[in-house]
Design a protein that fits this description.
Number of strands: 19
Distance between the termini: 17 Å
Order of helices and strands: HEHHEHEEEEEEHHEEEEHEEHEEEEEH
CATH class: Alpha Beta
Number of helices: 9
Shape: globular
Strand content: 15-25%
Radius of gyration: 21 Å
Number of domains: 1
CATH architecture: 4-Layer Sandwich
Length: 406
Amino acid sequence: MTVTLSPTTAQQQPDISYQPDETKWRARTARRLAEDPTLPNQPLPEGFPAKIKGPIAWEGKDFTTEEQWVVKLTEAQLQEIDNALKHFKGLNRPLGHISRETFPLPTLAPVLLGLAAELYSGRGFFVLRTIPVDNYTREEIAIIYAGISSFVGSARGKQDVTGAVIAHIKDITVSHAHEKGHRANTAYTTDKQVFHTDVGDLIALICLSTSESGGTSRLCSGPRVYNEIAATRPDLIRVLAEPWPLDSFGGTPGYTFKPLLYWEDEHIIIQYTRRLLTGYGEQARSPHIPAITEAQAEALDTLQFTAEKFSLALNFQKGDIQYINSIGLLHARDAFRDSPEKTRHLIRLWLRNDELAWKTPAPLQPNWRRLYSVGPDHQRFPLEPEVRKKDNNPIPPPPAPTAFNQ
Protein backbone atom coordinates (compact mmCIF):
# COMPACT_ATOMS: atom_id res chain seq x y z
CA MET A 1 0.00 0.00 0.00
CA THR A 2 1.26 3.46 -0.89
CA VAL A 3 0.69 6.19 1.69
CA THR A 4 1.00 9.82 0.64
CA LEU A 5 1.85 12.21 3.45
CA SER A 6 0.06 15.53 3.34
CA PRO A 7 1.88 18.71 4.39
CA THR A 8 0.01 18.66 7.69
CA THR A 9 0.86 15.04 8.53
CA ALA A 10 4.32 14.74 7.02
CA GLN A 11 7.17 14.43 9.48
CA GLN A 12 9.01 17.72 9.95
CA GLN A 13 12.72 18.00 9.19
CA PRO A 14 14.68 18.37 12.46
CA ASP A 15 16.39 21.67 13.28
CA ILE A 16 19.68 20.83 11.56
CA SER A 17 21.68 22.56 8.83
CA TYR A 18 24.74 21.86 6.71
CA GLN A 19 27.09 23.69 9.07
CA PRO A 20 26.97 21.69 12.32
CA ASP A 21 25.94 23.38 15.56
CA GLU A 22 27.55 21.74 18.58
CA THR A 23 25.13 23.36 21.03
CA LYS A 24 22.11 21.96 19.17
CA TRP A 25 23.80 18.55 18.90
CA ARG A 26 24.44 18.35 22.66
CA ALA A 27 20.91 19.53 23.43
CA ARG A 28 19.41 16.95 21.07
CA THR A 29 21.55 14.21 22.62
CA ALA A 30 20.53 15.21 26.14
CA ARG A 31 16.86 15.33 25.16
CA ARG A 32 16.89 11.91 23.49
CA LEU A 33 18.75 10.30 26.40
CA ALA A 34 16.30 11.82 28.86
CA GLU A 35 13.40 10.42 26.83
CA ASP A 36 15.03 6.97 26.63
CA PRO A 37 17.97 6.31 29.01
CA THR A 38 18.34 2.77 27.61
CA LEU A 39 19.70 3.99 24.23
CA PRO A 40 23.40 3.46 25.15
CA ASN A 41 22.59 -0.10 26.23
CA GLN A 42 21.11 -1.20 22.92
CA PRO A 43 23.04 -3.85 20.96
CA LEU A 44 24.96 -3.20 17.78
CA PRO A 45 23.34 -4.39 14.54
CA GLU A 46 23.74 -8.12 14.05
CA GLY A 47 27.18 -9.01 12.75
CA PHE A 48 28.75 -5.62 13.40
CA PRO A 49 32.00 -5.82 15.43
CA ALA A 50 32.51 -4.17 18.80
CA LYS A 51 35.83 -2.73 17.63
CA ILE A 52 37.89 -2.41 14.46
CA LYS A 53 41.63 -2.96 14.80
CA GLY A 54 44.44 -2.40 12.35
CA PRO A 55 46.42 0.45 10.79
CA ILE A 56 43.35 2.19 9.33
CA ALA A 57 41.85 2.68 12.82
CA TRP A 58 44.12 5.62 13.64
CA GLU A 59 43.60 9.00 15.25
CA GLY A 60 45.36 12.27 14.62
CA LYS A 61 47.57 12.14 17.70
CA ASP A 62 49.11 8.89 16.40
CA PHE A 63 51.09 10.97 13.88
CA THR A 64 53.96 13.10 15.13
CA THR A 65 55.47 14.26 11.83
CA GLU A 66 54.24 14.61 8.26
CA GLU A 67 57.15 12.42 7.16
CA GLN A 68 54.90 9.54 8.25
CA TRP A 69 52.60 10.16 5.26
CA VAL A 70 54.56 12.38 2.84
CA VAL A 71 56.53 10.65 0.08
CA LYS A 72 59.09 13.02 -1.46
CA LEU A 73 59.88 12.53 -5.12
CA THR A 74 63.58 12.44 -5.97
CA GLU A 75 65.17 14.28 -8.86
CA ALA A 76 65.57 10.97 -10.67
CA GLN A 77 61.86 10.19 -10.21
CA LEU A 78 60.86 13.65 -11.41
CA GLN A 79 62.97 13.13 -14.51
CA GLU A 80 61.28 9.77 -15.05
CA ILE A 81 57.88 11.53 -14.85
CA ASP A 82 59.06 14.11 -17.38
CA ASN A 83 60.22 11.34 -19.70
CA ALA A 84 56.85 9.60 -19.38
CA LEU A 85 55.11 12.87 -20.29
CA LYS A 86 57.18 13.16 -23.45
CA HIS A 87 56.47 9.50 -24.26
CA PHE A 88 52.70 9.94 -23.98
CA LYS A 89 52.67 13.15 -25.98
CA GLY A 90 54.64 11.36 -28.69
CA LEU A 91 51.86 8.78 -29.01
CA ASN A 92 49.44 11.53 -30.12
CA ARG A 93 46.52 9.80 -28.41
CA PRO A 94 43.51 11.27 -26.53
CA LEU A 95 44.08 11.87 -22.82
CA GLY A 96 41.59 9.14 -21.94
CA HIS A 97 44.25 6.64 -23.02
CA ILE A 98 46.67 7.64 -20.26
CA SER A 99 47.50 4.39 -18.47
CA ARG A 100 50.30 2.41 -16.90
CA GLU A 101 51.27 1.25 -20.39
CA THR A 102 51.24 4.67 -22.07
CA PHE A 103 52.85 6.54 -19.16
CA PRO A 104 55.85 4.30 -18.30
CA LEU A 105 57.56 4.82 -14.94
CA PRO A 106 60.17 2.03 -14.70
CA THR A 107 61.45 2.70 -11.17
CA LEU A 108 58.65 4.84 -9.71
CA ALA A 109 55.91 2.38 -10.67
CA PRO A 110 56.74 -0.20 -7.93
CA VAL A 111 56.76 2.62 -5.35
CA LEU A 112 53.33 3.83 -6.46
CA LEU A 113 51.90 0.31 -6.54
CA GLY A 114 53.09 -0.18 -2.96
CA LEU A 115 51.50 3.11 -1.92
CA ALA A 116 48.23 1.97 -3.53
CA ALA A 117 48.29 -1.04 -1.22
CA GLU A 118 48.75 1.38 1.69
CA LEU A 119 45.44 3.01 0.77
CA TYR A 120 43.48 -0.23 1.00
CA SER A 121 45.35 -2.17 3.69
CA GLY A 122 47.26 0.50 5.62
CA ARG A 123 46.45 3.93 7.04
CA GLY A 124 44.40 4.86 3.96
CA PHE A 125 46.20 7.99 2.72
CA PHE A 126 49.49 9.46 1.56
CA VAL A 127 50.83 12.64 -0.05
CA LEU A 128 53.20 12.67 -3.01
CA ARG A 129 55.51 15.70 -2.88
CA THR A 130 55.99 17.52 -5.13
CA ILE A 131 55.26 18.03 -8.83
CA PRO A 132 56.86 21.26 -10.19
CA VAL A 133 53.56 22.47 -11.61
CA ASP A 134 54.96 25.84 -12.72
CA ASN A 135 57.17 24.02 -15.24
CA TYR A 136 54.25 22.61 -17.21
CA THR A 137 51.18 23.70 -19.15
CA ARG A 138 47.75 22.88 -17.74
CA GLU A 139 47.37 20.00 -20.23
CA GLU A 140 50.80 18.62 -19.31
CA ILE A 141 49.84 18.75 -15.62
CA ALA A 142 46.67 16.79 -16.42
CA ILE A 143 48.72 14.16 -18.26
CA ILE A 144 51.28 13.87 -15.45
CA TYR A 145 48.58 13.75 -12.79
CA ALA A 146 46.52 11.08 -14.56
CA GLY A 147 49.64 9.15 -15.51
CA ILE A 148 51.00 8.93 -11.97
CA SER A 149 47.53 8.18 -10.64
CA SER A 150 47.03 5.27 -13.05
CA PHE A 151 49.50 3.30 -10.91
CA VAL A 152 47.47 4.08 -7.78
CA GLY A 153 43.99 3.54 -9.24
CA SER A 154 43.57 1.57 -12.44
CA ALA A 155 40.11 3.06 -13.18
CA ARG A 156 39.12 6.73 -13.45
CA GLY A 157 35.57 7.75 -12.54
CA LYS A 158 33.49 10.31 -14.40
CA GLN A 159 32.57 13.35 -12.35
CA ASP A 160 29.61 14.55 -14.35
CA VAL A 161 27.30 13.50 -17.16
CA THR A 162 29.66 14.86 -19.84
CA GLY A 163 32.34 12.26 -19.02
CA ALA A 164 34.69 14.72 -17.30
CA VAL A 165 37.16 12.69 -15.24
CA ILE A 166 38.84 15.65 -13.60
CA ALA A 167 37.16 18.44 -11.62
CA HIS A 168 38.62 21.78 -10.57
CA ILE A 169 38.07 22.39 -6.87
CA LYS A 170 38.14 26.14 -6.32
CA ASP A 171 35.89 29.07 -5.53
CA ILE A 172 33.94 29.84 -8.70
CA THR A 173 31.14 31.87 -7.15
CA VAL A 174 32.42 35.03 -8.89
CA SER A 175 33.94 33.66 -12.09
CA HIS A 176 30.82 31.56 -12.84
CA ALA A 177 28.22 33.73 -11.14
CA HIS A 178 25.95 33.61 -14.20
CA GLU A 179 25.70 29.80 -14.06
CA LYS A 180 23.62 27.69 -11.69
CA GLY A 181 24.74 24.70 -9.66
CA HIS A 182 28.05 25.55 -8.00
CA ARG A 183 26.51 27.41 -5.06
CA ALA A 184 24.92 24.15 -3.96
CA ASN A 185 28.26 22.47 -3.26
CA THR A 186 30.84 23.78 -0.79
CA ALA A 187 33.67 22.44 -2.97
CA TYR A 188 33.19 25.40 -5.31
CA THR A 189 33.00 28.08 -2.60
CA THR A 190 35.28 29.33 0.17
CA ASP A 191 33.04 27.84 2.88
CA LYS A 192 34.03 25.17 5.34
CA GLN A 193 33.41 21.65 4.07
CA VAL A 194 32.27 19.38 6.89
CA PHE A 195 33.41 15.77 7.13
CA HIS A 196 32.06 13.59 4.33
CA THR A 197 33.08 11.03 1.73
CA ASP A 198 33.06 11.27 -2.05
CA VAL A 199 31.54 8.59 -4.26
CA GLY A 200 33.91 5.89 -5.43
CA ASP A 201 36.87 4.17 -3.80
CA LEU A 202 39.72 6.66 -3.94
CA ILE A 203 40.12 10.43 -4.19
CA ALA A 204 43.18 12.18 -5.57
CA LEU A 205 43.77 15.93 -5.29
CA ILE A 206 46.67 17.83 -6.84
CA CYS A 207 47.34 21.33 -5.56
CA LEU A 208 48.01 23.90 -8.29
CA SER A 209 48.01 26.81 -5.85
CA THR A 210 47.13 27.60 -2.24
CA SER A 211 44.90 30.25 -0.66
CA GLU A 212 45.94 33.40 1.15
CA SER A 213 44.76 31.83 4.42
CA GLY A 214 42.78 28.82 5.65
CA GLY A 215 41.76 25.85 3.55
CA THR A 216 43.47 23.24 5.73
CA SER A 217 42.71 19.68 4.59
CA ARG A 218 41.55 17.34 7.37
CA LEU A 219 41.24 13.56 7.43
CA CYS A 220 39.74 11.14 9.91
CA SER A 221 39.67 7.36 10.14
CA GLY A 222 36.16 5.98 9.59
CA PRO A 223 36.91 2.89 11.72
CA ARG A 224 38.17 5.09 14.59
CA VAL A 225 34.91 7.07 14.46
CA TYR A 226 33.01 3.78 14.36
CA ASN A 227 34.89 2.44 17.40
CA GLU A 228 34.04 5.52 19.46
CA ILE A 229 30.35 5.53 18.59
CA ALA A 230 30.05 1.74 18.95
CA ALA A 231 31.54 1.95 22.45
CA THR A 232 29.44 4.90 23.65
CA ARG A 233 26.25 4.96 21.56
CA PRO A 234 25.71 1.63 19.80
CA ASP A 235 22.13 2.70 19.09
CA LEU A 236 23.48 5.32 16.69
CA ILE A 237 25.45 2.65 14.82
CA ARG A 238 22.12 0.97 14.19
CA VAL A 239 20.67 4.29 13.01
CA LEU A 240 23.60 4.87 10.62
CA ALA A 241 23.26 1.36 9.21
CA GLU A 242 19.57 1.77 8.36
CA PRO A 243 18.33 3.43 5.12
CA TRP A 244 18.32 7.24 4.98
CA PRO A 245 16.38 9.45 2.49
CA LEU A 246 19.03 11.08 0.27
CA ASP A 247 17.88 14.13 -1.68
CA SER A 248 18.71 14.18 -5.42
CA PHE A 249 17.76 17.88 -5.68
CA GLY A 250 15.63 17.55 -8.77
CA GLY A 251 17.09 14.32 -10.11
CA THR A 252 15.15 11.21 -11.09
CA PRO A 253 13.97 9.82 -8.73
CA GLY A 254 13.67 12.70 -6.29
CA TYR A 255 15.36 10.73 -3.53
CA THR A 256 16.86 7.34 -2.76
CA PHE A 257 17.18 5.29 0.41
CA LYS A 258 20.65 4.13 1.42
CA PRO A 259 22.48 3.46 4.69
CA LEU A 260 25.42 5.69 5.58
CA LEU A 261 27.35 2.86 7.25
CA TYR A 262 28.18 -0.68 6.10
CA TRP A 263 29.98 -3.72 7.51
CA GLU A 264 31.10 -5.43 4.31
CA ASP A 265 33.66 -8.23 3.95
CA GLU A 266 35.39 -7.33 7.24
CA HIS A 267 35.54 -3.61 6.42
CA ILE A 268 33.68 -0.69 7.97
CA ILE A 269 32.58 1.55 5.10
CA ILE A 270 31.07 5.02 5.57
CA GLN A 271 29.55 6.70 2.51
CA TYR A 272 27.67 9.98 2.91
CA THR A 273 27.51 13.66 2.07
CA ARG A 274 25.80 15.83 4.65
CA ARG A 275 24.21 18.27 2.17
CA LEU A 276 22.05 15.46 0.71
CA LEU A 277 20.40 15.27 4.13
CA THR A 278 20.31 18.95 5.14
CA GLY A 279 20.59 20.93 1.91
CA TYR A 280 23.22 23.61 1.34
CA GLY A 281 23.35 27.05 -0.22
CA GLU A 282 20.96 27.54 -3.12
CA GLN A 283 19.74 23.95 -2.76
CA ALA A 284 17.38 23.74 0.20
CA ARG A 285 16.30 20.23 1.11
CA SER A 286 13.33 19.28 -1.07
CA PRO A 287 10.08 19.75 0.90
CA HIS A 288 8.21 16.77 -0.53
CA ILE A 289 10.58 13.95 0.38
CA PRO A 290 10.82 12.10 3.72
CA ALA A 291 12.45 14.10 6.48
CA ILE A 292 15.29 12.62 8.46
CA THR A 293 14.42 11.65 12.03
CA GLU A 294 15.63 13.16 15.29
CA ALA A 295 17.74 10.03 15.79
CA GLN A 296 19.29 10.50 12.35
CA ALA A 297 19.97 14.17 13.06
CA GLU A 298 21.80 13.20 16.25
CA ALA A 299 23.75 10.47 14.42
CA LEU A 300 24.73 12.88 11.63
CA ASP A 301 26.15 15.41 14.08
CA THR A 302 27.78 12.64 16.11
CA LEU A 303 29.68 11.58 12.98
CA GLN A 304 30.87 15.15 12.45
CA PHE A 305 31.99 15.97 15.97
CA THR A 306 33.58 12.56 16.55
CA ALA A 307 35.52 12.97 13.29
CA GLU A 308 36.70 16.39 14.41
CA LYS A 309 37.91 14.87 17.69
CA PHE A 310 40.13 12.28 16.02
CA SER A 311 41.12 14.15 12.84
CA LEU A 312 44.49 14.96 11.35
CA ALA A 313 45.35 18.27 9.64
CA LEU A 314 47.46 18.04 6.49
CA ASN A 315 49.83 20.72 5.25
CA PHE A 316 48.84 20.74 1.57
CA GLN A 317 51.56 22.41 -0.50
CA LYS A 318 51.68 23.57 -4.11
CA GLY A 319 52.48 20.60 -6.34
CA ASP A 320 51.43 17.98 -3.76
CA ILE A 321 49.15 15.10 -4.72
CA GLN A 322 46.98 13.77 -1.91
CA TYR A 323 45.50 10.27 -2.19
CA ILE A 324 42.68 9.12 0.12
CA ASN A 325 40.70 5.93 0.60
CA SER A 326 37.26 7.56 0.40
CA ILE A 327 35.30 4.63 1.81
CA GLY A 328 37.71 4.12 4.71
CA LEU A 329 38.36 7.75 5.66
CA LEU A 330 36.31 10.90 6.09
CA HIS A 331 37.68 14.22 4.82
CA ALA A 332 36.93 17.90 5.38
CA ARG A 333 38.30 21.34 4.58
CA ASP A 334 38.48 24.54 6.57
CA ALA A 335 37.03 27.75 5.17
CA PHE A 336 39.60 29.83 3.32
CA ARG A 337 40.32 33.28 1.92
CA ASP A 338 41.75 33.89 -1.53
CA SER A 339 43.55 36.97 -2.75
CA PRO A 340 44.54 38.19 -6.22
CA GLU A 341 48.01 36.78 -5.59
CA LYS A 342 47.03 33.49 -3.93
CA THR A 343 44.00 31.46 -5.03
CA ARG A 344 43.31 27.94 -3.81
CA HIS A 345 43.02 25.61 -6.80
CA LEU A 346 42.96 21.81 -6.67
CA ILE A 347 42.16 19.24 -9.36
CA ARG A 348 40.34 16.07 -8.33
CA LEU A 349 40.33 12.53 -9.69
CA TRP A 350 38.04 9.71 -8.57
CA LEU A 351 39.89 6.40 -8.80
CA ARG A 352 39.53 2.70 -8.11
CA ASN A 353 42.21 0.03 -7.96
CA ASP A 354 40.55 -3.04 -9.43
CA GLU A 355 43.24 -5.38 -8.07
CA LEU A 356 43.06 -4.15 -4.47
CA ALA A 357 39.53 -2.75 -4.10
CA TRP A 358 37.29 -3.68 -1.18
CA LYS A 359 33.99 -5.31 -1.98
CA THR A 360 31.40 -2.63 -2.79
CA PRO A 361 28.20 -2.88 -0.68
CA ALA A 362 25.16 -3.78 -2.80
CA PRO A 363 23.30 -0.46 -2.26
CA LEU A 364 26.32 1.43 -3.63
CA GLN A 365 26.96 -0.76 -6.67
CA PRO A 366 24.65 1.09 -9.13
CA ASN A 367 26.44 4.37 -8.47
CA TRP A 368 29.86 2.69 -8.69
CA ARG A 369 28.97 1.07 -12.03
CA ARG A 370 27.82 4.41 -13.43
CA LEU A 371 30.87 6.18 -12.01
CA TYR A 372 33.42 3.88 -13.64
CA SER A 373 31.53 3.33 -16.89
CA VAL A 374 33.31 5.89 -19.07
CA GLY A 375 35.71 4.40 -21.63
CA PRO A 376 39.02 5.95 -22.75
CA ASP A 377 37.55 7.55 -25.86
CA HIS A 378 34.78 9.24 -23.86
CA GLN A 379 36.86 10.67 -21.00
CA ARG A 380 37.01 14.44 -20.94
CA PHE A 381 39.76 16.48 -19.26
CA PRO A 382 38.53 20.07 -18.80
CA LEU A 383 41.57 22.28 -18.33
CA GLU A 384 39.71 25.17 -16.71
CA PRO A 385 37.14 25.30 -13.89
CA GLU A 386 33.54 24.69 -14.92
CA VAL A 387 30.18 23.96 -13.35
CA ARG A 388 29.57 20.22 -13.27
CA LYS A 389 26.67 18.95 -15.35
CA LYS A 390 24.33 16.81 -13.28
CA ASP A 391 23.39 13.29 -14.37
CA ASN A 392 19.60 13.06 -14.16
CA ASN A 393 19.22 9.76 -15.98
CA PRO A 394 16.41 7.78 -14.35
CA ILE A 395 17.31 4.92 -12.04
CA PRO A 396 14.84 2.51 -10.43
CA PRO A 397 12.47 4.16 -7.89
CA PRO A 398 13.56 3.94 -4.26
CA PRO A 399 12.22 1.03 -2.21
CA ALA A 400 10.26 1.80 0.92
CA PRO A 401 12.52 2.24 3.97
CA THR A 402 12.85 -0.76 6.21
CA ALA A 403 14.45 -1.32 9.58
CA PHE A 404 17.92 -2.82 9.52
CA ASN A 405 16.85 -6.29 10.60
CA GLN A 406 13.52 -6.51 8.81
